[in-house]
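> Could you send the GH3 auxin-responsive promoter prediction when you get a chance?

Sure thing. Input:
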Amino acid sequence: MNIIGNIIKSVIDITEKLTPESSPSENQKEVLKKLLSKAKDTAFGQFYNFEAIMESDTVQKNFSEKIPYFDYNEINDEWWYKLHEGETNITWPDNPDYYALSSGTTGKTSKRIPVTEDMIESIKSAGIAQIIALSHFDLPATFFDKGILMLGSSTDLIEKKDHLEGEISGISAHNIPSWFRGYYKPGEKIAQIDDWDQRVEKIAKKAKEWDIGAISGIPSWIELMLNEVITYNKVKNIHEIWPNLEVYTSGGVAFGPYEKSFNALLGRPITIIDTYLASEGFIAFQARPETDAMQLVTDGGIYFEFVPFKPEYINQDGSLVAHAPAFTLDDVELNQDYVLIISTVSGTWRYIIGDTIEFTDIERAEIKITGRTKFFLNTVGSQLSVNKLDDAVKHLEERFNIKIKEYTICAKRYDEEFYHSWYFGTEDDVEASSLAQTLDDFLKQANKNYRVARSKALKGVKVKTVIPAIFHDWNAFNKKKGGQVKMERVMNEDKFTEWEAFVEKK
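Output:
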C-alpha cells in the first residue's frame, strides 16, 4: 500500500473541498485595489495619481481611463530604464530582486522584465492552486509521491550588483519551496548546467535512478529530451524508464500540434495539463479534466483587461491604438479574440503581453490562447490566428497519417503576388503538393476570411518539408536551445528570407 501517496492525495482532496468558491470578477476588483494601494507612493503611482483612482466610485473604469497601454519598449523607455540607472521605487516599491530575460519568439534582443518578491510569491501561490486542482483529475495515489521533472532554463542565474537575471523558468526553479525539493528533478546540480545538450545528456544518464510521475516544459524541447532518454537507455518508449509517469504539464505553446509525435514516445496514455506561465507571471492553468481550457489566476498578483482583437484597434506592429476599449471580466463575451492586458505585482501596468485569448467559460474565467498579436496572419485579409493554423496542421497529420513536429509560415510575395508559404518539420515521406492542396481546402472550409482572401489577393499555398532538427538548429542559431525558446509560427518577409537562406545551407 502506498501510504505516503495516499496521505498526500487525501490532504489535496480535503484542501480542495475546504477551499471556498470565489467569484473571478470579485477577485479581480480586490486585486486591482491591492495593486493600486501598494504602488500609490511609487513614481508611477504618483504620476498617475493612484490615490484619486482608488477613491473613485468606479475604480476599474477610472483605472482604464487614466493610464495608457504600455508594451515592453514603452514602459522600459519611460519607466524601467530608471531602475537600471540605480533609482528605486519606480513602478513598484523598492527594487526588483530578479529580471526575467525574454526574447519571446520575435528577436534576439532580450527583454529584461522585473520580477519582484511579490511576484515570486504570486507564482508559488498559483502553483499550489494548480496542485490542489489535481484533485479534479483521476490520478492514482501512487502519483503523489513521485518525482517531478521540470525541464526549463538554467537555474544558474546571472549575478548583477543588486539582483539576479535569467529566464522565468530558471528563476521559478531557483525559488522552489523547500518542501518541494525532494520531488524536484533533475536536481539543483544538473538544473544549473547552462548548455542544453549537456543538461539533457546528464538527465539521460540519471534517468533510470529516478521514479518520475510528472514532467513539465515546452513540448518541442520535452520531446527532444524524451527521445534522448529513450535512445541512451535503448528502450522503446519512456514508460520503460519511468513506468509511473502519469502527467505532462505543457506550457509556452499550444500542445495540439505536438500531440501525435509526443504520444508516440509513450507506452500508454497520460494526463496532459496545460499551463500559462509567462515571464510576466503565472497567468492561468487547466483546473479540470472536462476541458483543455485554462482558468485565469484571478486571485493572485495579476489584474486582467481584455481588448477586442479587431483591425481598428491594432497597429501594424501589433501594438494597440490609444482609444482601444478595454473590457473587464464583467464585459467579455464568448467566441471573441481579445488582446490580453495585465497589471502585476512586478510593476507592469496595463501591459500588452502580446498574446490573444478567447473565453470558453466566462463564469469560470477559462480561456484558450489563440495566438500572438504580432503573429496574426492577416497580410492579405486571411485573418488566421495561430490556433487556426494549429488546427490545419492537425488536420494534415490525421489526413496523411504523418507527424508534423514544427512549422512556420509567411505571406510571401512571388512576382508581386501573395502566397502562403509553409515549412513543415516532418520525417515522413509525403508529397508537398498534396499537403498544399489539402491545407488550402481545409482553410477555405474552416475560415470565411481565408476563403474570401483566396478569391482575391491570396493566390495560393506553397509547402516545403524539412527534417524537424532544422527548426531546433534555427532556434539555437537565433537564440539558444531549450528553456523558454519557442519557434515563431508566423514570420514577416525579411525574417522569412533569413529562414529560407538558413534552410538552404542545411
